[in-house]
Amino acid sequence: MNKMNRFAARLLSALILTTVQSASSAQSPQSESDFIPAHARKSASDFTLIDVYGKQVTLSKYKGRVVLLDFWAVNCGGCKQEIPWYVDFESHYGKSGLSLIGLDMYGETPDMVKAFMTHSKMTYPVAIGTDALGERYGLREMPLTLLIDRKGRIAVAHAGVVDRDAFEREIQTLLAE
Q1: Which of 60, 103, 111, 177 is the 20 to 30 Å CA partner of 119?
Q2: Measured distance CA(166)–CA(79) in Å, rounded
């Protein structure tokens, strides 16, 4: 192999390695730094919406509980990955003080959302979110999942797919506070 071919082979190898490293770091689901210390937390913006079954959902009524607030959509791939985890969290930690609220942000019809909820075994309230509410919470990409502590303050705000195990540890930490 001549000098030019060896150089081209090394360059190609470096390019492939860089591409693989960039892709794996871009898909890194969650860092431990998402957790906000209690002294630095800010109050979650209150809202009242009507869920897909016609019941009122008001965030401030959940004070005293840890709330998993999920901005999602029926046709969001990452959302479809996370929702079964959230259903499990609700089942496992609901009696310990965890509540879930889902906000569908693609403007899908309540019937579409209800069908998805039935298929996914979602029993927690889901409302159709608004652009204004998304803006108040800094929604730039989905899924966006927040953990709100028992005092109504944002303890975690994570855009993209969460790391299930790390997120569960954060839920456990908040439930113990």
Answers
A1: 60
A2: 17
- Residue-range domain boundaries for the chain: 1-29, 31-176
By C-alpha distance, which of 116, 130, 124 is closest to 98?
A: 124
Nearest Cα neighbor of 105 from 138, 81, 61 is: 138
Q: Which superfamily is assigned to 31-176 in CATH?
A: Glutaredoxin (3.40.30.10)
Q: Average pLDDT of 133-144?
A: 95
pTM: 0.81
Q: How many helices (H) and strands (E) does the chain have?
A: 5, 7
d(CA 174, CA 97): 10
pLDDT in tens, 94-104: 999 999 999 99
Crossing angle of helices 77-93 and 164-176, rounded to 10° = 40
- CB contact at 8 A, 56 and 135: no
- For 45-89, how does the pLDDT look when each residue is reduced to its tens digit (9 = 90+)? 999 999 999 999 999 999 999 999 999 999 999 999 999 999 999
